[in-house]
C-alpha cells in the first residue's frame, strides 16, 4: 500500500528543476491518508508517472500548473498546455510522435508511459481536452 501521494511524490522530484525553469507549479492533489494497492512493480509506475509529469511541464505555459490527482485506481496528470490535437490523438503514444508546439522532447515520453503501464497490466488514456490543457490517466491493474 502507498499512502497519500508517496508514489506520486517520489515521481515529482525529478521534475522541479524543469518546472522551476519554465515557471510551472507542480501540485499533488492526493488526499492525506488515502491508501491504494501498489502494483507489483512500483518502478514501472514511477517511470510512467515521471514521464507524464515531465511532458505536462513541457507542454504548460510559463506560470501554468501541473496537477497530479489520484481517484481510486486512476492516477491523473493534468496540465494547462494546448492539449493534444484530435488529429494527433490516435498516434500520440507512438514512439517519436511529438506534439505540435515543438519543444525539447524526443517524442518518447507517452510511448514509455504506455509501455510501462501495459507491462503492469494497466493502461494509459488521453481523454479529449476541451481546448485547454490535457489530462493523462494511468489506470492501475485491476481497475
Descriptive account of the structure:
The protein has 143 residues and is an alpha+beta fold. Helix content is 33%, strand content 22%. The chain is built from five helices and seven strands, in the order βααββαββααββ. It has a five-stranded mixed sheet, covered by helices on one side. The longest helix is centred in the middle third of the chain and has 18 residues, at 42-59. The radius of gyration is 14 Å and the shape is globular. 36% of the residues are buried. Mean pLDDT is 79; it is low at 1-7.
Write the layout of secondary structure elements.
Layout: E1 2-3, H1 6-11, H2 16-22, E2 25-29, E3 35-36, H3 42-59, E4 65-71, E5 74-79, H4 86-89, H5 109-120, E6 123-125, E7 134-139
Parallel strand pairs: 2-4
Antiparallel strand pairs: 1-3, 4-5, 5-7, 6-7
Helix pairs in contact: 3-5
What is the quaternary state of this protein?
single chain
Structural class: alpha+beta
Order of helices and strands: EHHEEHEEHHEE
Largest sheet: 5 strands, mixed
Per DSSP, what share of the residues sits in E-state strands of 2 or more residues? Answer: 15-25%
Poorly predicted regions are: 1-7
Q: In one word, what is the shape?
A: globular
Secondary structure: helix percent: 25-40%
Number of strands: 7
Side-by-side strand order of the widest sheet: 2-4-5-7-6
What is the CA-based Rg, rounded?
Answer: 14 Å
Q: Separation of termini?
A: 15 Å
Give the rounded overall mean pLDDT.
Answer: 79
Number of helices: 5
Amino acid at each position: 500500500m502507498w499512502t497519500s501521494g508517496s508514489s506520486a511524490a517520489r515521481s515529482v522530484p525529478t521534475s522541479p528543476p524543469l518546472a522551476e525553469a519554465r515557471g510551472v507549479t507542480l501540485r499533488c492533489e492526493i488526499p492525506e491518508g488515502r491508501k491504494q494497492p501498489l502494483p507489483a512493480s512500483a518502478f514501472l509506475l514511477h517511470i510512467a508517472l515521471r514521464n507524464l509529469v515531465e511532458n505536462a511541464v513541457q507542454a504548460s505555459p510559463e506560470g501554468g500548473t501541473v496537477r497530479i490527482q489520484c481517484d481510486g485506481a486512476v492516477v491523473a496528470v493534468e496540465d494547462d498546455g494546448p492539449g493534444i490535437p484530435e488529429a494527433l490523438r490516435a498516434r500520440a503514444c507512438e514512439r517519436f510522435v511529438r506534439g505540435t508546439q515543438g519543444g525539447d522532447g524526443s517524442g518518447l515520453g507517452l510511448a514509455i508511459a504506455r509501455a510501462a503501464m501495459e507491462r503492469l497490466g494497466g493502461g494509459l488514456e488521453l481523454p479529449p481536452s476541451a481546448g485547454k490543457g490535457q489530462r493523462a490517466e494511468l489506470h492501475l491493474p485491476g481497475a
